[in-house]
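Weekly sync, protein design subgroup
Attendees: M.S., D.O., the rotation student, P.L. (late)

Item 1: inverse folding check
M.S. brought a backbone from last month's batch and wanted to see whether the design step gives back something sensible before we order anything. D.O. pointed out we never logged the input encoding, so this time it goes straight into the notes. Structure tokens as presented (343 positions):
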């Protein structure tokens, strides 16, 4: 079923996904939870929470499990799962396996430590040895998964971080030449990008993080904003158009025009912007509000939809698509509305 909004047809399922993303929580009775694949992130704004994931008609979604009474509740009817909205059937869903973080991929973080201090990011000091991580990845690749995504905190330096990712990619690539490898990385130079490409990386994400320099400097500030744009240009030169992505986070008091402008700027360069809604737990929200000097609220389903539609139009106009992404968030689609997948 489709509804007409302005001149644009919006899929009803995209609208439902936007409502669930905006709300963010789902009540899951204990007996149902024990049968689901539950993720317990060790870093990021959802650390300390339990996450569950669902698939519905080719779309995916992750939500934080709540023990309290919530607007959305998961119910099992026979062998089927439904999400109820205030006791009314809202959506039939299938639970996802979250054992590798992103369904259909192995998505790992090499290091949870970071020398930088982006306000929206919570890090841990838990260190998992490289051999153990290699073993984990290999086990899943042997089972038939063909996409590997790698991220990492920046530790002990940008150079050290790039070196470590390079070593890991080489370690996997020598035995698996037919899988897709994507890295989400902080690079310092064109040489860093080239090293990772030569090691066997297929897709690269270098985050601009925010739509304006002012927001980036206030919240992250680990590099010159313009330098990141230059590095993205270098990455497109090395990997090709559509193989480079960059997070643009929204929900921190930016204007729609700022978002549109940054999406256009990235797409003009051949970068696929990855529009991401900010997730705020109480501590992160407080710290951000203190730094920014204003209050932050939830993002409405209408804004989530509107921005995703702008993103789609911007990509279409430049002949770019998210459908060819094999790794990371654009191929996963659990946390945001992804143009061409969801809308
Ligand atoms: S650079 Fe990345 S890992 Fe480090 S604090 Fe910022 S977002 Fe977190
Ligand atoms: S969309 Fe990105 S952050 Fe969200 S679960 Fe998928 S890979 Fe992880």
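Designed sequence read out in the meeting:
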């Amino acid at each position: 079923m489709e509804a007409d909004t302005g001149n644009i047809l919006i899929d009803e399922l995209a609208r439902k996904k936007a409502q669930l993303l905006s709300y963010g929580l789902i009540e899951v009775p204990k007996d149902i939870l024990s049968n689901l694949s539950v993720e317990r992130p060790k870093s990021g704004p959802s650390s300390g929470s339990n996450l569950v994931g669902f698939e519905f008609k080719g779309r995916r979604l992750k939500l934080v499990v709540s023990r309290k009474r919530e607007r959305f509740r998961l119910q099992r009817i026979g062998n089927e799962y439904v999400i109820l909205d205030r006791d009314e059937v809202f959506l039939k869903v299938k639970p996802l396996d979250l054992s590798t973080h992103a369904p259909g991929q192995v998505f790992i973080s090499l290091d949870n430590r970071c020398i930088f201090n982006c306000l929206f990011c919570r890090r841990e000091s838990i260190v998992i040895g490289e051999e153990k991580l290699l073993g984990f990845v290999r086990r899943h690749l042997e089972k038939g998964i063909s996409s590997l995504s790698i991220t990492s905190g920046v530790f002990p330096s940008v150079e050290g971080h790039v070196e470590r990712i390079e070593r890991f990619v080489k370690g996997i690539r020598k035995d698996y030449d037919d899988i897709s490898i994507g890295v989400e990385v902080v690079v310092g130079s064109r040489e860093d990008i080239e090293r990772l490409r030569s090691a066997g990386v297929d897709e690269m994400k270098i985050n601009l993080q925010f739509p304006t320099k002012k927001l980036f400097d206030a919240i992250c500030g680990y590099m010159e904003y313009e330098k990141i744009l230059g590095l993205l240009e270098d990455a497109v030169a090395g990997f090709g158009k559509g193989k480079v992505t960059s997070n643009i986070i929204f929900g921190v008091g930016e204007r729609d025009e700022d978002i549109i402008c940054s999406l256009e700027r990235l797409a003009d360069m051949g970068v696929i912007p990855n529009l991401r809604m900010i997730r705020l737990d109480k501590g992160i929200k407080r710290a951000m509000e203190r730094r920014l000097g204003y209050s932050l609220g939830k993002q409405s389903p209408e804004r989530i939809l509107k921005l995703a539609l702008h993103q789609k139009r911007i990509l279409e106009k430049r002949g770019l698509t998210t459908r060819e992404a094999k790794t990371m968030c654009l191929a996963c689609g659990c946390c945001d509305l992804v143009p061409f997948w969801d809308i």
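Discussion: Residues 166 and 196 are 6 Å apart (CA to CA). The longest helix spans residues 301-317.
Action: P.L. to compare against the previous round before Friday.
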